[in-house]
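On clarity, I found the account of how folds are encoded harder to follow than it need be. An entry of this sort, consisting of the sequence and the corresponding backbone structure tokens, reads as follows:
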Amino acid sequence: MRRLWWLLAICAMACFAADIAGTWKGTAEGPNGNLERTFVFKVDGSKLTGETTSQMMGKSVLTDGKVEGDNVSFSITAKFQDNEVKLNYKGKISGDELHLTSEMAGGAGGGMKLEWTAKKAQ
């Protein structure tokens, strides 16, 4: 009986997981003005994959992606001024809006963080 309750609890948590799959258009205020980034997410259970594209850094593949309820996290490696940089993203999804914080890995870039707001594309 106890196993049945655990199974039901796990299924209920999966049912309430945020729907992040699809295309999202994001903006952040950078030091030199607004930045734009498109995210394309694919979900398989709690695993998050996909890619992201920006005019400044081009296309990057998501790695280490996870979705847990309404929490999301992933990393990308992008080209910036002929250097590869790893950016770590963490955030929360709420309906058709996604709030993310990105930070350069390893303390590179002076610990610069960007706050992103993304809307699900129709």
